[in-house]
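User: Hey, my collaborator sent me this sequence without any context and asked if I could get a structure. I don't really work with proteins. Can you help?
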Amino acid sequence: MVPLHAAEPAPAAKPNIVIIFIDDMGYGDIGPFGATAQKTPNLDRMALGGMKLTSFYAAPVCSVSRAQLLTGCYGPRISVPGVYGPGSKQGLNPAEHTIAERMKENGYATMCIGKWHVGDQPEFLPTRQGFDHYFGIPYSNDMQKRSAESGKPVVPLLRDDKVEELLDDEAQSLIVERYTNEALDFLRGAGDKPFFLYMAHTAVHTPIRPGAAFAGKSANGRFGDWVEEVDWSTGRIIDTLRELKLDSRTLVIFTSDNGPWLIKGTDGGSAGPLRGGKGSTWEGGVREPTIALWPGTIAPGSVCDAVAGTIDLLPTAVALAGGTLPDGPVIDGRDISPLLLGKTTQSPRGTHYYFRAYDLEAVRQGPWKLAVVPQNETMGRGVLPDASGTAPRLYNLDEEVGERTNVAAAHPEIVTKLAALAAKMEAEIGGKEPAARRPAGEVAKPTTLYPVGGKGRAGKESGKTPPEK
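Assistant: No problem. I've predicted the 3D structure and written it out in structure-token form, which is a compact way to encode the shape of the chain:
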């Protein structure tokens, strides 16, 4: 990676925005957040040249996490609580306003590359949700079904709204390279128009398929190999922006959709010092390793521990583009550009809510996190004894980020305050009778994107459609 440099102050022109969204990467899986078994020199350099966001939140699982980023809303507000399987009748409602649609309103070219996973019916695909173009696998790479033509378990690779290829396991080893080449082509072809690139990697979700140039190269098995390939991809994007003299005009954000899939063992990642993993509302399930780079605008080597998250990216992007959001429909995110620009250390969202499906499980305000129900450790593992019972549990995340010591008895006033906030939000968009939940998109006769025959191999997430409202 070419060394980052102190660029001229960002011009008044609308900045380009690139969001790099990794799949199933844990808080402790990259060098800037403590990883040592796999090497991430490009992300290390990115952190040195930009800002680490150390309290940045997504959601417990894939589809809801992506819906939150795209709409600026908690999943329950827009009826996307969990994971969509191939051929699901539900998806992100086209009536919702996505980040891509908002950026197009402000004159941006838009591109989505990689994992979509908020509905695979034509009405739900990226080109119907504000993106000029799309190239990628539209859901998790383990959601394979047997091709009626070849009999092999495959996933589809789409270009815009058409299936370009059907990929078996071996072909998936090329996916990071192919995504990266598409991203570079988009950057080089952007011209004078500002652009928004949403680069949602298939990696590092299982099955783990690093490219040949990376296979066997890390000290952490094939999982580490794929992390290192993602690092390479990120470096190529940043270097290309610099070569095109676009780096000082471009905000790049690197983050992940949820915590590590711990039950996958050596094919899963690490939450570092955090408790829990993918599928849970412990910090390890939803707090993501996040870096923001904007040479000449974001202070190099800076760290922000204020609460922020993927729901804040839409309002932030619109604000940086010089746009404004209408009063409705309601979104939950807030503009965090003052945090990125070093103008404040205070989060614009005083409270963060941790939903698993439609259930509100915890709430955070400042250093205090109150868990209002028992919490599973991770997808595939249940509740441990210290998290069972009906009494709320209070943790001070500044003093103990690993959430082991319940201090509720010592701070009853904080428990009461946070419990009231949780109850109010639960009544608004959670549970079975919410006051302000908007409907999911739905089609009457869903079909798969390609002809299938026989029963295909499925991963743990495969075929799980969100529960009906």
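In plain terms: Confidence is low (pLDDT under 50) at residues 1-11, 456-469. You can pass these tokens on to your collaborator as they are.
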